[in-house]
Design goal:
The chain is mainly beta. It contains 1 helix and 27 strands. It has 3 domains: about 5-105, Jelly Rolls (Sandwich), CATH 2.60.120; about 110-210, Immunoglobulins (Immunoglobulin-like); about 220-315, Immunoglobulin-like (Sandwich), CATH 2.60.40.2310. The protein is about 0% helix and about 55% strand.
Length: about 325
């Protein structure tokens, strides 16, 4: 702006936005126009760290395009920040009479940004915890961000080193882990509470809990002492479970042995895997006593263990 323009401009008093207050200072400005050419300007000298946002007064009949000129090369949709007294000149580009707009001089605020805004966890076996994924909290505002709390819900946990205040331009990591309690799809939310506009800010969390099942057939087999019989075992993945399950026969009756073919099965997340349990009794005075026995066939994968039972009758 030239000195002549400065002399012609209506100069308002120096504005000093309160650094401790987030209440905007709203300044109405009238723009007189004829034939599409602006005649007058309104000049404001402002000092302090602040944001400048311009908008047309909604009470006006039309909303011409605005331009905001300053030494900092701002625009009406991009806040200008300055720590020195700075002249701001406002004018409109389209024709109109007696129209005006509002310039808001507001102290800065912390602005919270979370990236990414969603996390998806791969299938995770029950009773286990996934590797952590990271969400980054950034303060893109012109003032420190005060963090009230950071929480997660559902089957998701979080840990962070953000503390209670995040400086302007700084960021901090938030680690999120998934520990499903039931099979199937699980949903949760990571929530950051702060003094930033739009608080609370959230990240959507999804994951899948997986498991497997074990069954045995037939339900009952009858043999003479000294003879052997077999049971068919089926191990099925639940919600996409993958992994190796080792087979065992804990608590087998005295003088009864169990063997498995194969000794472990691979679960691929989709198909049922099978195995054969061979149960052998012994004969003679020290053989397997006659009676009815409950056999337990167990599949174990990591910390997961599931069993099926069947009846063995020895004559």
């Amino acid at each position: 702006m030239s000195q002549e323009e400065l002399n012609r401009a209506q100069v308002q008093p120096l504005l000093q936005p309160a650094a401790s207050s987030l209440v905007p200072q709203v300044v109405p400005m009238e723009v007189n126009r004829t034939q599409g050419l602006f005649l007058d300007t309104t000049l404001f000298l402002v000092a302090g760290w602040f944001d400048v946002v311009c908008q047309w007064d909604e009470r006006l009949p039309s909303s011409p395009e605005l331009s905001l000129i300053s030494a900092l090369a701002g625009s009406e949709d991009k806040p200008i920040r300055s720590q020195e007294p700075t002249p701001f000149q406002f004018y409109a580009d389209s024709a109109g009479l007696g129209q005006g707009f509002l310039a808001t001089f507001a102290p800065p605020a912390g602005i919270a940004n979370l990236s990414p805004t969603s996390l998806t966890f791969a299938g995770q076996p029950l009773t286990t915890t996934s590797p952590a994924q990271t969400v980054t909290l950034s303060n893109t505002g012109g003032a420190p961000l005060t963090i009230t709390s950071i929480t997660s819900d559902g089957d998701f946990s979080e840990s962070n080193t953000c503390g209670g205040t995040l400086a302007s331009g700084a960021n901090c990591p938030i680690s999120v882990a998934f520990a499903p309690t039931v099979t199937g799809g699980r949903n949760g939310t990571l929530t950051v509470y702060s003094d930033a506009p739009g608080s609370p800010h959230t990240v959507s969390l999804t994951g899948t809990g997986t498991d497997f099942s074990v069954s045995a057939s037939p339900g009952t087999q009858t043999v003479k002492a000294g003879k052997a019989t077999t049971y068919a075992l089926s191990l099925g993945p639940l919600s996409g479970f993958t992994g190796v399950a080792a087979l065992s026969c804990p608590g087998a009756p005295a003088r009864v042995t169990c063997t498995f073919t194969p000794t472990s099965v691979q679960l691929d997340g989709t198909h049922t895997s099978t195995a054969t349990a061979s149960v052998k009794t012994t004969s003679g005075k020290k053989g397997t006593p006659r009676g009815t026995y409950t056999l337990t066939f167990t599949g174990t994968s990591g910390t997961l263990s599931h069993s099926a039972t069947a009846i063995l009758v020895v004559r």
